[in-house]
Amino acid sequence: MGATLERLAALAALFALACAVAVGSPEPGKADHYPCHLPNRGWGFDTYEFENYGQQYGRAIELAARGLAVPPAYTLSNGEVIDLTYQGVESGPRSARLPASTANSIPPSLYKAIAWIESDYGNASHSTPYGGVGSILLSMDCGYGIGQITSGMGHLSAPPALDVRVPSARQAIIGTHPMFNVAEGVRILADKWNSAPGLRPVAGNGDPLALEDWYYAVWSYNGFAFSNHPLNPAKNPLRGTVWNCGDPNAPGYGVFNRSDYTYNEVVYGCVRYPPVAKGATYPPPLSQPGAPPPSSSGARFEPGDTGVVIGTGNCLNLRSEPASPTIVTCLSDGTVVTVLGGPASANGLTWWNIQAGNFTGWSADEFLAKVTKPDPEAPVNPEGRLWPPQVFTMPSLTVPQVASALTAENYDKCSDGGFAGGCASMDFPTTIPELEIVPHFDTTPPIDPGLASAFLGNPQLQVVGDRAVSITASTTSATSSAITVRNTGTWIAPFRVRTSASWLIVRHPYDPPGRVVDGGVAIGSETDVVVQKTPRIATRGRDSELQITVDAANLPEGQLSGTVIIEPLLGGGGITTITVQVTRDSTGGGAPGPGFKSVLPGITYEGSP
Known about the structure:
The chain has 609 residues and is an alpha+beta fold. The chain has a domain of 64 residues: Roll (SH3 type barrels).
């Protein structure tokens, strides 16, 4: 058993203990924030949820995959720069890698599948109806929105935050505007691709058009960990090549769960078997390809077959006779063998006489696989799906070039070396003519670049309310002052809220205790905003109604004053500054005030759940 497999066995034994002490024991994470579960909270962002989510998120991703979703870098009036420009991707094999080019796009079906896996095509919380406005979808590990963006969204240091209480403009627009969230997710996937060959292996010839060549980039989106390795012993070995993505007509449905598959297999499964709209019925299957003829003997091999050693985690003993204690040699994963004879039964195992180079002997067949062409893919009925089903070939451990690359030993060496040098031993081809293995390309039709302007609109922010307010506070409660943030332009107007002190709070009147608003959106009057799903009730446009108040329980001593700043993140409208004067009330009067969001040292974590 390889070192990684041994580590996983040990980790499984320690898992329950780790869960018990996780809250009290910091673990070395890469994040700059605490987990976003009680008693901690992440940024308080509101966002808009596309009503026609299948079409609109699909088009948003197609635009982002070509670098067309958001405007070029721009500077706000306070000097902050919002830059979510698509950086492009590199191309070419390890030996002839070309610099990143924006002419190289990302296969949109891949990121559509990632977005579906990460968030079910939802940018807002699950309580927000499609077409409505609500709090951003926020995971326990502080992943925000449809792409579950974690990197760069921390709140404990500046940067990435403006300060430890205030999000940067970049963070705020990712957390409030769905187009910018999609654009950042695509940028992250591009970064994962561009980390090869310096820090990641290369699949195929590094062709960004080839679905198969994105294997390691997709793996890395969720973390380049052994948990996503195809030889992870925690995954069901009978699971097949990809997850069914919830399609009842796909292989493995009702037998294997999503957790039986690696992240790569889950994502590529949704590329092959795209979902239908929520609540819709899947289309009937199309005709199945003919099954390959069975072996005439009914056995796994026949003399003359070519096999490959797979899944040992170390090596396979080649013995002088079946079950003999005499070991001729030990064959590493990926070794190509020729079957000379057999089978023979001994010690409850099936043995085959094989040859590997100059060595001949007998091995049990549990770690031997026949080298074959990949099974033909059954055609997938595209009717009613959120994106077109794609054809591709997953890396098969029955292919010697793949099996020798995807060994646990190779991953161990790569991981132990900090992935320096990009793990060249894990490179594998995606073109193998003798096995009829060729790369495949995304068939999504090109998107009209002109659609980008419709997804951004022409927002104009306006703040209605007093520019100087007074708050009366006791030790237990405080009054509040109302303001309205309105979009007099079109579509989505994202904005950020800043306060000058931790005790100064901006919230919605209907917010639960403890929530604050760090950023939000106002929707133009030309847009329907759904306020009730069933029966559907919608309004024309939506203002953001806010309250300015204080954290009465944590007010410092002395005379207090502060400022609230509301600033647009896209489009027109100036910065609004509201001065706040706090008056002490020794009688304890005033309406109850909300608690301020808390952050407690605990554990750090990075990546999607």
